[in-house]
UniProtKB/TrEMBL annotation:
It comes from Streptomyces lomondensis. Residues 169-288 form the 3-hydroxyisobutyrate dehydrogenase-like NAD-binding domain. It comes from the Bacteria. Keywords: NAD, Oxidoreductase. This is 2-hydroxy-3-oxopropionate reductase. Belongs to the HIBADH-related family. Pfam families: NAD_binding_11, NAD_binding_2. Residues 7-166 form the 6-phosphogluconate dehydrogenase NADP-binding domain.
Length: 297
């Protein structure tokens, strides 16, 4: 293993974090990980990484610390406090937060880290579990150009479209817009599916031809089989999309942007969650449309 590559600490080995950290190991990086679930640590070790017993142990010798956790509260929990990243990472380290959180949390984190001599990038991703496994994620980054340049080889092992979008928090703002577009797109597809089925059309044929025209999208390509098979095993959970819809609606309100359709879809996501479907994939928005159309789901 080449010693010239930066040593990486990876915090958060969930649906996204596990395959992403494994792609870095495949690319030759030395990865030490920490997460709350024992079996995820075992998986990292089996892939050639090192399991740490705590955040402090994971980040102590790292050149780069990467975090991938569900939301702002978890980012704050792992970053701050005596056992957190900022107290235990060495000065000069680069912290790359790939979680999807509020832009303000990213701005605050960068400020707090600067006092410790730690540089920060917010680098949320789009592409879901499949994109993480295939290393074709879209990565939207906020922070300094010099830090982005240093992190770019790491990003290239994780994704395909890698863009510095502006200062701290900008990556999160673009990610929020991404989640708005994805949710509205899934909702439109779900409505089309119910309409087509109630009309007695061959759904597979219809989705194939729709996906070949202007109505086609990455969302439809990725989610077509979920719709056809009613397979809602989570690639991206409704619970997380619910969180993201609050981020985008709050941020939009702050800057004075109206999101009329986004607000409706945010409510549909919230209602799906209230009906107990929060653990399902976001393509399960189809279930909400079915219920509204009289089906017992």
């Amino acid at each position: 293993m080449s010693n010239s590559l930066p040593k990486i600490a990876w915090i958060g080995l969930g649906i996204m974090g596990s395959p992403m950290s494994e792609n870095l190991i495949k690319a030759g990086y030395d990865v030490t990980g920490f997460t709350l679930e024992r079996e995820k640590l075992d998986r990292l070790a089996a892939a050639g990484g090192t399991a740490a017993g705590s955040i402090a142990e994971a980040v102590r010798d790292a050149d780069v610390v990467i975090t991938m956790v569900p939301a702002s509260p978890q980012v704050e929990a792992i970053a701050y406090g005596p056992d957190g990243i900022l107290e235990n990472a060495r000065s000069g380290a680069l912290l790359i937060d790939m979680s999807s959180i509020t832009p303000q949390t990213s701005v605050d984190l960068a400020k707090a880290a600067k006092d410790k001599g730690i540089r920060v990038l917010d680098a949320p991703v789009s592409g879901g579990e499949a994109g993480a496994i295939e290393a074709v994620l879209s990565i939207m980054v906020g922070g300094e150009q010099a830090d982005f340049d240093q992190a770019e080889p790491i990003f290239e092992a994780l994704g395909k479209t890698i863009v510095l979008c502006g200062p701290h928090g900008s990556g999160q703002t673009v990610k929020a817009a991404n989640q708005l577009i994805v949710a509205v797109n899934i909702q439109a597809c779900a409505e089309a599916v119910v309409f087509l089925e109630k009309s007695g059309v061959d759904l597979k044929a219809a989705l194939d031809v729709l996906n070949g025209g202007l109505a086609g999208s990455t969302v439809l390509t990725r989610k077509k089989d979920n719709f056809l098979n009613r397979d809602f095993k989570p690639g991206f959970r409704i619970d997380l999309h619910h969180k993201d819809m609050s981020i985008v609606t709050d941020a939009a309100r702050t800057v004075g942007a109206a999101l009329p359709v986004g607000a409706v879809v945010a409510q549909l996501v919230a209602s799906l969650r209230a009906q107990g479907d929060g653990g399902l994939d976001h393509s399960a928005l189809l279930r909400a449309v079915e219920r509204l159309s009289g089906a017992q789901v």
